Amino acid sequence: xxxxxxxxxxxxxxxxxxxxxxxxxxxxxxxxxxxxxxxxxxxxxxxxxxxxxxxxxxxxxxxxxxxxxxxxxxxxxxxxxxxxxxxxxxxxxxxxxxxxxxxxxxxxxxxxxxxxxxxxxxxxxxxxxxxxxxxxxxxxxxxxxxxxxxxxxxxxxxxxxxxxxxxxxxxxxxxxxxxxxxxx
Length: 184
Description:
7 strands
């Protein structure tokens, strides 16, 4: 059976947001085009790395001699999105991701695939109750301004977690924190 592709060529909105309190947050990549909304769960580290790599791609494009694309160095004000996530219905939990650049459309391309639990002894693991192939993926293409705004917001969301202890650097919980530094 073919892979079910949730494709967004020019999304109306693409953001990373969270549900839950710092220390127990679930991160989501949410994409909307019209009434179609897809939300996929991410790890905090995946979110941070995605933002970092998008900025790297955009920064590299700026330095390319003869680059025909107008790549913003900062986030265009009209593209700032500080709104909460819309209704979240998790499509899948993200495993592998890929990131690229499509020069034919001047868009950053994100591909996300679900975590797969493949058991070599049982080939029916990838089948759902109806016997249909459960494989799916998210494919998002976004213009450079939207990509820059996405990366900025994602960095802010990742950084809004629990504060780091000034002594040991580990996150501090609201209930308290005990440093495990070796005595000097």
